[in-house]
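Blackboard transcription, Thursday session:
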Amino acid sequence: MKFNVGCKLSYSIHQPSTLIFNLKVIQNDYQNILKETLEVDPPLDREEYGLSFVENQYFRINAPLGKLSVSYNATVELSHVYVESETVQEVPPAELPLEVLPYLYPSRYCQSDKLGNMAQSEFGDLQPGFSRVTAICNWIYEKVEYLSGSTDSQTSAYDTATQRAGVCRDFAHLGIAFCRALNIPARFVAGYAYNLTPPDFHAYFEAYLSDRWYIFDATRLAPQSGLIRIGTGRDAADVAFATFFGAVQPEEMEVFAHQVFEPGVKAPAFTTRAIATS
Amino acid sequence: MKFNVGCKLSYSIHQPSTLIFNLKVIQNDYQNILKETLEVDPPLDREEYGLSFVENQYFRINAPLGKLSVSYNATVELSHVYVESETVQEVPPAELPLEVLPYLYPSRYCQSDKLGNMAQSEFGDLQPGFSRVTAICNWIYEKVEYLSGSTDSQTSAYDTATQRAGVCRDFAHLGIAFCRALNIPARFVAGYAYNLTPPDFHAYFEAYLSDRWYIFDATRLAPQSGLIRIGTGRDAADVAFATFFGAVQPEEMEVFAHQVFEPGVKAPAFTTRAIATS
Amino acid sequence: MKFNVGCKLSYSIHQPSTLIFNLKVIQNDYQNILKETLEVDPPLDREEYGLSFVENQYFRINAPLGKLSVSYNATVELSHVYVESETVQEVPPAELPLEVLPYLYPSRYCQSDKLGNMAQSEFGDLQPGFSRVTAICNWIYEKVEYLSGSTDSQTSAYDTATQRAGVCRDFAHLGIAFCRALNIPARFVAGYAYNLTPPDFHAYFEAYLSDRWYIFDATRLAPQSGLIRIGTGRDAADVAFATFFGAVQPEEMEVFAHQVFEPGVKAPAFTTRAIATS
Amino acid sequence: MKFNVGCKLSYSIHQPSTLIFNLKVIQNDYQNILKETLEVDPPLDREEYGLSFVENQYFRINAPLGKLSVSYNATVELSHVYVESETVQEVPPAELPLEVLPYLYPSRYCQSDKLGNMAQSEFGDLQPGFSRVTAICNWIYEKVEYLSGSTDSQTSAYDTATQRAGVCRDFAHLGIAFCRALNIPARFVAGYAYNLTPPDFHAYFEAYLSDRWYIFDATRLAPQSGLIRIGTGRDAADVAFATFFGAVQPEEMEVFAHQVFEPGVKAPAFTTRAIATS
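(Written on the board underneath:)
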């Protein structure tokens, strides 16, 4: 399944400023970049970099006073791995790969330590496995209202657990926090999402089950197979699509994610099967 | 039904201090004080006072350096009014008596404004009336662990909603906050409780339904008919049994609440009927 | 000094709703109402009421679907008592009048219990008295930015202590919380303010010193002698100018507070003297 | 300067459990391990591992029911780099090495995003550089009380900013949060500390200035040159000395950090010079 994704962002820079972007699709086992363009106007130097512990392709731009626009366009082919969800198990901490252990710890927006009793009370008696993480997503979908503008960049899972309103990043943070509180490693994913209305960047999460990471999205705003990854992190603090240092005024933002027509290939659809990404 | 209740409190006063106590049983329509003694040792002056907006009989003592002990003993006869709970209704704000309106507003430990969405999500679809407040109490009983020492004097309903552990005052605060969030006036009650184990002061709450206040206790630690009132307030900030200004070290605390034997009178028992107190 | 104050508020009522207003100037020793009109359009019944423990003149309106407007206009003469500030003392809890003790306790937006160490650290070593409360106001003025829209109705003193931005009610809440943490009774005041730009309702606070309540306003937005009182309470939860139950959409809001010209009477001016209100 | 450091920890394991330890001294440019022993009793397998993004040498033990003890002992030689503090500069985000950028972002216990205004208000006008981070440490030392038992594992910089009491990890978290809020990269360091009373693990922080990381310790409990590093992280969530999954009861804990006598070598002493660690 192929997608054409990208964005066009523009800014007014009121004094020389530093901007860090994280909006490029990453290349990995299940995500193949067929074509990719990135244009910065004016054509400033950009420093691209990854970090060892998260899958993101950041770039930094030092912008002078004036206008700045960034346009990104990529054609990506996805080959997700589908697994029967009943076979997907939770892994005890004794057997977890050592490199996923950090995804058990609390982070800025996912205070799993403070939500331990709540997670036990709501989900502690459920059968462990893929279905328990699904139950967490259902709980969030049913009890938290998706409401644009109801939260801001400081809102965390601890807030959402009681305030019961939020957007995609809040839904992801709460799912992650509940998972970690139950000793299920979980990480935040930023991406493009097919068919998202209104078009925007999207956030969802992955839980480590059996021997790999599986996609979960409590918002139900896009089919799981239509999620194209930008990167992962412990929470939104690791994967903001844009971070500013200086006096930067966002102006326009356009985001898109369309399926590329291929004869015989259907549109992404919601599924109850498990989708692994690594 | 008659009860003998009281307490014996002792303190070390490390510098001249002011202590405000709120531990005397109040006299009202359903609670008749048959006998009452209050001893302060050394025999210091005490200033007794009530406040216009809450039913409490406070007294203030200015204590010199040394030991202080306060002993209280009262024999009280209760005549609760029992009502069939199906007949007990919620009252719309348009018809609420004006003097109960303040019990709709958020207070220090009952941030009903921050718990509005949660209350709607959990209880908004339930049939209004006595049964909805009962559902709130059942939810608290099932989802919050009663755990001595798990909270402190700064813990509020907003914390308990997620931390899911607490003691009687936390249970009461959460019940009150949920009620107010649903436009049901609710107030905090401090009292003595028959058969409480271990013996201690107790806290529970009342909701204003139909045309009076009804007792609710989400802890299920004592039968409703065995609750003897000290006073009421918007939350624990109004009815602390003891408040200190100075260097006061609590030493011993003994609290008791026994039924007075009367031929043919049974012990207090749990009931699903509604008990009104005013 | 005479003022003409008032407001004109209009609402769209999307379903029959209950509105509680608290916008009438109160009559008391230092505030004499010379003339007063209140118009409700359509001319619905209103129930006026006070509460025993706060000075406010509330009224309740049950409004049908449609438009609602409320216009209030009063001419008020103020005769404040000026006192030399060096003579104004803090009162130890042992000697405080019993009826002001509740203003030492924490409330919804003034969590003095959580700000005890901070108050001690910042103000504990200062000379007690009027000058210490002034120091609190100066601290707030210097460290908290007055920024419209930076806070909402859930923001409390605990938030403002770190977030360092807010509006008049946040400034008042923080001042009150610091005072109570230092055992100085403090209460919230809602009022009209001469010369306020942009025109709006105003909030400030009073501290109980020597033998009466004194005005403090950390915002420095209006001269103390130009503050016309609507009412008092433990915090904003007691004195919201409008509270809605139902589907009410605020439309227009106009607030004014002008001095009435009198030959030889100057305009209100900022002062470092203490102004008592009771 | 040589130190002999280590610990002896013992646990009762009430059901088979997983324990992750992070208590080994790390080997790096300025820290040379001369001798090291680690004993686990019973002699269970342990899996040692590092993580790519933090300097820590974790090990995992899966322990059966019964007793478990872990004894660690290392002799370490430190060769810190001393720099004249006036020459140590802050680095603008435009020039920061890309790999330190994550240490600008908020983390679980260091909510720099929520403390931005406070950091600006308290430190925004100070001269940038080493002296500004020193000013942050002085502020914390003066305004926050070091009080054992005043906080717990959920306490964060946001809490400490107002509650003004804490232990070494709280002091470090607050220092880190203020630095990040001012765009100074900062990270948490866990270590052994010479002369610490009572003996315990210690926490402090490092700020990235000029072209390397510099040590800061707002507690003033140990000379900077007597700090022996276990590891670093974004905050305490990355470098807990022990993390449990299961029913583990800590029993005894002994920690030590002595200087090894060498003729002519003085004891560690407090300094106002800057000490770089990388």
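Lecturer's comment: The radius of gyration of chain C is 19 Å.
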